[in-house]
Amino acid sequence: MNILVNAIDALEEFNAKRTYQEIRDNPCRITIRTSVVNSQWVKIALAKPAEGIADNGSGIPESIQKQIFNPFFTTKPVGKGTGMGMAISYQIITEKHHGKLEFFSTPGEGTEFVVQIPIQQVSKVV
Ligand SMILES: Nc1ncnc2c1ncn2[C@@H]1O[C@H](COP(=O)(O)OP(=O)(O)OP(=O)(O)O)[C@@H](O)[C@H]1O
Ligand SMILES: [Mg+2]
Known about the structure:
This protein has helices spanning 2-16, 20-25, 85-96; strands spanning 30-33, 47-55, 100-106, 110-118. By secondary structure, the chain is α+β, with helices and mostly antiparallel strands. It has one domain: 2-Layer Sandwich (Heat Shock Protein 90), CATH 3.30.565. A hairpin with a 3-residue loop joins strand 3 (100-106) and strand 4. It starts with a helix and ends in an 8-residue tail after the last strand. The model is unreliable at 39-51 (pLDDT under 50). Adenosine-5'-triphosphate binds at residues 2, 6-7, 10, 55, 57, 60, 68, 73-76, 81-87, 111.
């Protein structure tokens, strides 16, 4: 949800700077792609890359890309963002699900977040 809401925010912000004509010619889009990598014979195949969640908004400027997973980092106006969405998502995906969260962003073209979650969790023997 945090990743989706960020994508919607990015598109709204992008549209606010565009004319009706520009929006109509090149509409905003959020793409969600899921796939299972299942080579059937190795354990390593038991990984599920990806909810690739991509938007065609303004992208994330390179100067702030290193900071977006930091708690309380936000570029949104006071009262809109707390800056916790990505920090919480990162924690849930990596610590709770032993997965990976990464993103690829080209300023001016958009952003893709990739969530990878192992299908089988390793259970701990206590
Ligand atoms: N899809 C995206 N496109 C552009 N910038 C993004 C995108 N996703 C995240 N960001 C940048 O990363 C920053 C941190 O995101 P994060 O979700 O942690 O906080 P937030 O959205 O500002 O506030 P909230 O706590 O309400 O989620 C955002 O303020 C924004 O600058
Ligand atoms: Mg957010």
